[in-house]
């Protein structure tokens, strides 16, 4: 017998052995559940069974809403914690509050656990959760952070006590409502242009709070349903044991056929939570991971984000065939998809993301099911620590220039995070056995789970996602309409938007869109825009602003490229673009986009860049040289919109201006933002205050297209708008008039000796 035949037989024997073990496990599980009243056939008192069957829809609605609020707070605490180090570019101390996610550690005390699991404890916990949503209403960001941290801690305790509820049929409801509420959360984010609905505005926030209190009133005060389903409060420090006779706070019994390995499951649970936040916190994130230059760009979130939703739901559908999900070969789909998403660009990467969504969707209810079977708060606690470690690693890989040891140990190592994140999920699903689906396929008297009502809720969530996608699709600009325009002038603007948060940590995108619309700019370069990260809220600034302003967009480089991101917005179609990672041997990676926009008869190159930190001298030197090369190779009219971090007439400034002209070489009071140009005629220049939306002003420039190759620039500088004969060149008077010096206004106004206009010196100028 040859060696290959022997290996084949051994493999077949091993597979048969595994199947026999699984069958024996299921058989033992049925016997155990009958003997110990555990699982989907738990024998519960007739009155409780009748209550749950009669009030099934109400109970499901309660838990569905609080599941949605859980995802809202869980995904919302990260941006609040990260706001302070983002502003100071250093560890601030408030980061410690992320440990609020490990709050179930207090349940190790039997007295605290008894209180938390009681009806009164559940009522108090949920009141705290809803009140914490009101943190959005406070002006002080520190106060908002502390209130939301308390709410996040309460949400984790509520999650833990719900998954370990006394009646196992109630746990089945929790497993499914957590899963379905995630889909509603994603669908509603589509309708709110990727912003989390509860944090999208004052009115939306109040509506969430009102609904929350109405749910609490119906749940705890309308009748005694919850008072019978949950135990009464007890202050006795009793030894907590399950109906199987072991203490769930001690080491899991390896003899139990029902409990998975608690430590491996904890790792899997935390890894899954991070994956949902990192890759699937919004349907747009996969597109931003797959970002690539035109014309080979990745599918846009609108409408292709729906494919991610469908992939996740397709994974959930596999609960009807658990033998598929629990087969180790199924994991290869997720592993290959993860690899394609991370190591590729464009359509291939997006396809990998959809494949990964199929795998992740299949393990969401399974891991929740196993956590519910684990009967231990420590699973949630250790899972929270695993999640926090993932988040810290993700922060360090991008913010390595501003954190301890970041530049030497973790710089640009997200591929390591991808591997260990998937390995953690694998541990939770395939090594923390058994995979029995106890609560996925539960029974509440005559009601089986999942049932038609559950699948109908998924259908409603999908309809919401489709409606949001369709309404947003209508806001996309018309390419044919824009190509028919043939302007004589073009207006450009540059701004650093601070990831869509103002100086008080409030969402600023609506206000940013309003002021950008008032500028009437044709092309806009935005910096610090990659908020498709878990610690920035997974917001899609690109789609949001593009749809609000009806402009074409290009985002780059990819979210996985460890930069802070650039966006180009253009009234005219983008026909070609290249995404650059500029040389950065010492400091943070510097992103750049060179995009070519097309009018009816003209092509214009727009170069947007965020150069490295001012302390990294070698980086800035190499980056300036690379940018000079890019500009020198451009044959079209070119506009440079750059965050340069150098003074006028410094070394880097001289390198850049050797390839393009400065819009106003007389403006010596600049540090970060510069506008340069090539093969264009300058017409106007303005600086506009940020009004607290960010820490950086808006700069604008107007240019005239030359009518022939032999043209002169406009050398004459004036500040009196009446001296300008072509009134279309004037900037919007909504920003006021000429203002000398630094303007410290609460509104957007001209300042720094602008606006300025440039006039021809003689009749030869075209």
Question: What's the number of helices?
Answer: 24
Q: Helical content, roughly?
A: 40-55%
User: How many individual β-strands?
Assistant: 16
Shape: elongated
Q: What is the name of the CATH architecture of the largest domain?
A: 4-Layer Sandwich
| Poorly predicted tracts of residues | 25-41, 239-257
Major beta sheet, specifics?
8 strands, mixed
Mean pLDDT: 88
Protein name: PGAP2-interacting protein
Keywords: Membrane, Transmembrane, Transmembrane helix
Pfam family, one: Exo_endo_phos_PGAP2IP
Organism: Adineta ricciae (Rotifer)
Description:
About 50% of the residues lie in helices and about 10% in strands. The chain has about 775 residues and is α+β, with helices and mostly antiparallel strands. It has three domains: about 40-240; about 255-440, Growth Hormone, Chain: A (Up-down Bundle), CATH 1.20.1250; about 480-710, Deoxyribonuclease I, Chain A (4-Layer Sandwich), CATH 3.60.10.10. The strands form three sheets. The chain has an eight-stranded mixed sheet with strand order 5-6-4-3-14-13-16-15, covered by helices on one side. Strands 7-8-9-10-12-11 form a six-stranded mixed sheet, covered by helices on one side. Strand 9, helix 23 (about 615-630) and strand 10 (about 640-645) form a beta-alpha-beta unit. Helix 5 (about 120-135) packs antiparallel against helix 6 (about 140-165), helix 10 (about 260-280) runs antiparallel to helix 15 (about 345-375) and helix 14 (about 330-345) crosses helix 15. The radius of gyration is 29 Å and the shape is elongated. The N and C termini lie far apart (about 90 Å).
